[in-house]
Amino acid sequence: MLLQKWVLKDLKSSLLNCKNTLSISKIHAVLITSGISNNGALAAQLIASYARTGDVNIAQKLFDDLPKRGIDSWNALLIAYSRGNSPPEVINLYRKMSLAGIRPDSSSFTVAIKACTSLLDLKSGREIWKHAVECGYGSDIFVGSSVLNLFVKCGEMDEAMSVFDGMSRRDVVSWSTVIAGLVRSGRAGEAMDEYRRMQREGLEGDGVVMLALIQACADVEDLKMACSVHGCIVRRGFPVDVMVQTSLLDMYAKNGKVEIASCIFRTMSCRNVVSWSALISGYARNGHAGVALELLVEMQSCGFEPDSVSLVSALLACSHVGFSRLGREIHGFVVRRYELDRVVGTALIDMYAKCGSLSHAQALFERMSSRDVVLWNTIIASYGIHGQGKKALLIFHRMIKARARPDHVTFASLLSAMSHSGLVEEGQYWFDAMIKDYKIQPMEKHYVSLIDLLARGGRVEEARRLIEDVECELGIAAWVALLSGCINHKKFLIGEMAAKKVLELKPDCPGIYTLVSNFFAAARKWDEVAMVRRVMKTAGMKKVPGYSVAEVDGRLHAFLVEDKSHPLYEEILKILEDMEHRMRALGYVSKTEFVLQNVKEEVKVRMLRNHSERLAIAFGILKTRPGTRLLITKNLRVCGDCHEAIKFMSIVAEREIVVRDAKRFHHFKNGSCSCSDYW
DNA sequence: GTAGGGTTAG
């Protein structure tokens, strides 16, 4: 008997050390020959050992052969299925166990809930959690952590928080689960609060917590906070591995500090696909499309195959500069190499629409097998930027029919589409419906869209009243929208008020100063034009140089304003002069008020002729066959004179000309444009 | 508990 006890102890520890099936089966054989294989504790140990090596079938067979099954053997089998990556079997087994009258313990609950988490099976998870509470495991740290993780992964943050608050003891893991969960559900501010609470409770964060905090800073775009988190990591000497470095660079990029991001990247000793794509995404989102695409090439020459995430960022870069050839190539590459998931599909649809190919965008949208709200929003916005408000509305109706729930972005896109298509009444109707039927509280952007809708439709007075009536404080954007309407409809009185208000609010972007200046020029108030220029100068605001890009034969050709460096400049200029001659015969008159410098009239005419979009168009005419549609992408807004001039160009050059500016598409054909107003 | 990706404005 004593001998057997010793043997048992010995065998148990040997089992614990077994690394492969062969050595386990040797011990198994010893057990059978010594006639002690039916010992409960030992059998459970045996099942657990097989589980460790992933031999679920042997574990199950052993379990089936047992005459008596205690909690240990049930748990061992649960773990076997959990290790074998069969979550549905785990849940099944858990149910069988309950039916067999076995009272699950901390470990059974933990494993079962983990299985629900991997299946995102919230219903079963809740049921098991309820059972755990009834059995007195409601404040168990292991069960608590796993159910916390379940709710976090399923996006049920409020439920997660209530579990967390009920836990008797919280460790770094449970804190980091909560903090990371809050970040992931877009509640970065609360995540920071929880971190402070954790510190107050005397717990130090670790690398994982720091990672979550970096992400939080990336989300809220709070550079000060970002720097302090970075400082904290350095000061406290947290280990800085690839992941931390990647999230740091991502954080700086998302805060607009792409140079710092690049600096971190260049000093990294170890890089991977994730860090490359974080950098590419950083450049793409900050408007440096060229650098982003160069990095994509550099990444490949360093031996890293781009995955779908890096390609999505590359697609974003293509959208920005209208590089449809590369966009199409990426499409082909993704289809050949990976499956086209919803995110890639959305990025592609957005790329096609922004590169002027609404029909490709539409076709791809119809082919997508599943559609979420972002995908619906993308196609609605695509119709919107192409000035097809009615079609955007049709898609919206389809979306409702498909039982997708519109969100605040849906309505922002829809209202903007209505606005650009002059659908004023429809826009007002859907603004009200958003609040009443869809219970979405309007945010500033929705009010701005509504103001834009009214002002663009000529109902400037109503738009002004709306700004005053809205209970929440509206920022500069609302006044800019009003001002644009005033320019389009020559409402100088309200316009002057709006212009002053805009200047008062100190715009931080040079484009808005240009708008104000354009307004005063339209009102022929030249002193004010000069004043705006002075204000701009004292604010240290430099006008962003305009550039346009034309894609000819699959290559991008960029033109800066007054770009005399182009090898074909002489020929381009000749085409422009010839065209202008014929345009004048048809009634074109230069709107020199759009030149904001105080120079002679003929200089103004020459300056307008040298606007980048015109250089790009002339280049396109020079390099493509007659009748080919031209697509030009411009970084700023098209000016009022170019808007008028390109209408005439479409006649004299007999071309369809599509200009995508910083905001929308202008389709010029036979002397008219798809949009009546230029701004 | 562990980094990177898609939609929205003037």
Automatic annotation (TrEMBL):
NCBIfam families given in the database record: PPR
GO MF annotation terms: RNA binding; zinc ion binding
Annotated GO biological process: RNA modification
Residue span, DYW domain: 587-679
Keyword Hydrolase belongs to the record: no
PPR repeat boundaries on the chain: 70-104, 140-170, 171-205, 272-306, 372-406
This protein's UniProt keywords: Repeat
Family: Belongs to the PPR family. PCMP-H subfamily.
Any Pfam family the entry gives: E_motif
Protein name, UniProt field: Tetratricopeptide repeat superfamily protein
